[in-house]
Each structure stands twice: as C-alpha cells, then as structure tokens.
Amino acid sequence: MTLLTLLTGAAATEPENALSPGSQTVIVVVGAAGAPEYAPQFARWANLWKQACAKGDAEFVGIGLDPNGGTSDRARLQEILAKQPQQTAAPLWLVLIGHGTFDGQVARFNLRGPDVSANDLAEWLKPMDRPLAVINTASASGPFMKELSAPGRIVVTATKSGFEHNYARFGQYLAEAIAQPQADLDKDGQTSLLEAYLTASHAVAAFYTAAGRLATEHALLDDNSDALGTPADWFRGIRPVRKASDDASLDGYRAHQFHLVPSPTEAAMPPELRAKRDQLELQIIELRDARSQYSQADYFSKLEPLVREIAAIYEQVRPSGNR
C-alpha cells in the first residue's frame, strides 16, 4: 500500500499503460577479488543488480567486470561520476561490491589498481544535487557513512565500523533482495531500498545464527544526513520503533522512496512529479511523528492539504478511463 492509501483508505488505480521511469542510473563497481573464490561471487552479485536494472528499465553501468585495460578502475569511476547529470530529479545509485580496508584513519574500497577512499568519493560526489544512494557492501565500510552522509542522500554500509574487516555477506543478500517480490514488506507492488536493506540485514543475522558464529558485520542505513545510521533491528516492518539515547532522529523514510523496480503506478510518474510527491510524503511523516504536539483539529488541518496535493499528483498520472 502507498502512503496515500494508508492515510485515506483509498486504493491507488494501476495505470493500464505504465510509462518507463527511464532515467535512473545504477553504477556498480566490483572491486579486487583478493582471492580466486571471491571473483565469481562478486560477479554474480553484480549480475543480479544488472538484472534488476533491466526489470526496472534503469541504466546499468559496470566497472571492474571487464578485463583491466589501460585506465584504472579508480580513474574510470571518477570519470563516470563526473559525466553524470548533477542537477536532476532522476535517482543515481552507486553500489560498491568487494573488500575494504581501514587503517584507523582512512577507509578505502579495494579496486584493481589504486583504491578509492571515502574521502575521494565524498569529493567526487560533492557537486551532486540529485537523489543519490551510495551502497558500500564491502568489509570495513562503516566509515564511509560519516564521510558521505549529506542532505537528500542515502548511505548504506555493510558494517558499523572500519574494524569489522572480515568478508561481508551483506552484498549478496542485498543484491538478491533489491528486486525480490518477497522483500516487498508493505505489499505495495515494489521493493524499496529500505525493504531490501531490512531483508538483507535479517538474512545476514540468520546466517551467523545458523552457523553458530559471532556476527562480524552489522549493516547501517542513513538517510537523514546525521551520519549515524540505523540498524535493521530498530525497525518493526518498515517503521523505525526505537529511539537513540540522544533522541537523534531515525532513518528509513527516504530510503523507502527509492525503488529500482517500480510498480506500474510509480513507473508512470515522471521524475520531477515523483520528487514533489516524495517531499510531500516526508512532510506528512514529519507531521505524523509530531502528532502529540497538536490538537486533533490542528493535526488534521495540517494533514488535509498535504494529502490533497498528493492525490492531485496521482490524478495527473492516472489514465483518463480510470478517473
């Protein structure tokens, strides 16, 4: 169910001829394997992202999958990011698959040839003024969150710190979940990045429990730009239910608006209109979380115009025969 459905009790009508969302781009970077057994695993995870892009009609850009030519993977990544549109409503996904290192000060993602640091990526992504998800599924990826967190940006790391340096399995489960209908926790016909993150995190925990091993990776998600991140076990369904000791705001709302394989209704919505809808949804969520501060009359007086605006957006993408 969509947020509009939850708030109004009305079911959104699926368009008969959904338009392609088209303009999403997913850059998947496969790092150095380190050992022969990891190369086919990383290639399979990358291929799952490629398949998801095909289902969602998104552009897939792969780095590290072809023979290593004259240009280093680090230079190629920098060049590809520099060529991306900086100001657009179309989402950009950057997915890192492989191993990472942390020397106590600087975290790096291991590439064939020169590595890329969290600081490097922060500098390269600084001009971006567009919906952006950075997903580092490598070991020792935790410090990337602090460097990359920014308004309007989602950052996912496979570990909570740079000292969780063992091989991370989170990337496998995330790649498997990103287009998996079973990961659609709210049953709205699409799997969001939040839902894939929760599904993958629970699968990681189940693996270590079944193996009788102490977990050496704890994924985090940040989408409110405070660089703190929220673990999966702080959610019930798709809602964060635990509060940090310092009462810091929780994450997940923005990540639930990222869909690599959108439903027909979502696919029919142009990026600019979707961005407007997303902002209205976030305002409703903020209002809902602060409901105790308002009288019932004040709350609904603030809620109604926001819901009406969202309803008007859905009217714009609904086929005339379904009005």
Outline the structure in words.
This protein has 323 residues and is an alpha/beta fold. It has two domains: 21-263, Rossmann fold (3-Layer(aba) Sandwich); 273-318, no CATH class. It is 38% helix and 13% strand. The protein is built from ten helices and eleven strands. It has helices at residues 3-8, 38-56, 73-83, 118-125, 143-148, 170-177, 193-211, 264-267, 271-289, 296-317, and strands at residues 25-30, 59-63, 92-97, 100-102, 107-109, 116-117, 132-136, 153-157, 220-222, 235-236, 239-240. The strands form three sheets. A six-stranded mixed beta sheet has the order 2-1-3-7-8-9, with helices on both faces. A hairpin with a 6-residue loop joins strand 5 and strand 6. Helix 6 (170-177) crosses helix 7 and helix 9 packs antiparallel against helix 10 (296-317). The longest helix is centred in the C-terminal third of the chain and has 22 residues, at 296-317. Mean pLDDT is 89; it is low at 1-22.
Q: From the coordinates shown, what is the CATH architecture of the largest domain?
A: 3-Layer(aba) Sandwich
The CATH class of the largest domain, by name, is Alpha Beta
Helical segment count? 10
Order of helices and strands: HEHEHEEEEHEHEHHEEEHHH
Structural class: alpha/beta
Shape: globular
Head-to-tail CA distance between termini: 19 Å
Number of strands: 11
Radius of gyration: 20 Å
Count of domains: 2
In percent, how helical is the residue content?
25-40%
Main sheet characteristics: 6 strands, mixed
Low-confidence stretches: 1-22
Approximate strand percentage = 5-15%
CATH topology of the largest domain: Rossmann fold
